[in-house]
Amino acid sequence: MIAAWKKKARSLKIQTFALYYASRDPRVPWYAKIWVALVVAYAFSPIDLIPDFVPILGYLDDLVLIPLGVALAIKMIPADVMAECAARAEARLDEGKPQSWVAAIVIILLWIAVIAWLARIGWKLLNPSG
Q1: Of 63, 65, 70, 86, whose CA is between 20 and 30 Å from 49?
Q2: Could you tell me which residues come within 8 angstroms of residue 92 by beta carbon, excluding any fewer than 6 positions away?
Q3: What CA–CA distance (Å, rounded) separates 45 from 94?
Q4: What number of other Cβ atoms are within 10 A of residue 106's Cβ?
């Protein structure tokens, strides 16, 4: 069973790398490139939208969101382009997983905005005169 999970994880990594290469291919439609860029940036981000230490929800993005995003992106890309990119991705996989620090910064800014918004609501509830 563990071997099957490792195989699926490797397949998802290859697909994610392939999407990265596909996002730079001129044969891929613009709307697919936008979706692929979002999925790949999030998948390669060193920071999750929902941190892994949050019970149950922490692994939701790794187990559900990323695979669904990848599956939808693959359907938007022409099959021949995806096959070429998958071959390149398999060769690249041995070099290690790239990280997207831009996506990490966006996620950090999103968390800061949420915390600021919650603090503002809390301030209004605790200080009704101001």
Answers
A1: 86
A2: 17
A3: 19
A4: 16
Longest dimension (CA), the chain: 64
Domain span including residue 47 = 2-100
The verdict on residue 115 lying in a domain is no
For residues 79-98, average pLDDT: 81
In a domain, 26, yes or no: yes
Q: Which pLDDT band, with edges at 50, 70 and 90, does 10 fall under?
A: confident
Q: What is the pLDDT of residue 34?
A: 92
| Domains of the chain: total | 1
Burial class (CB in 10 A: 0-12, 13-18, 19+), 40: buried
User: Assign residue 77 a region: left if phi > 0, alpha if psi is -120 to 50, beta otherwise?
Assistant: beta
CA distance 118 to 7: 41
- For residue 28, is it within any domain? yes
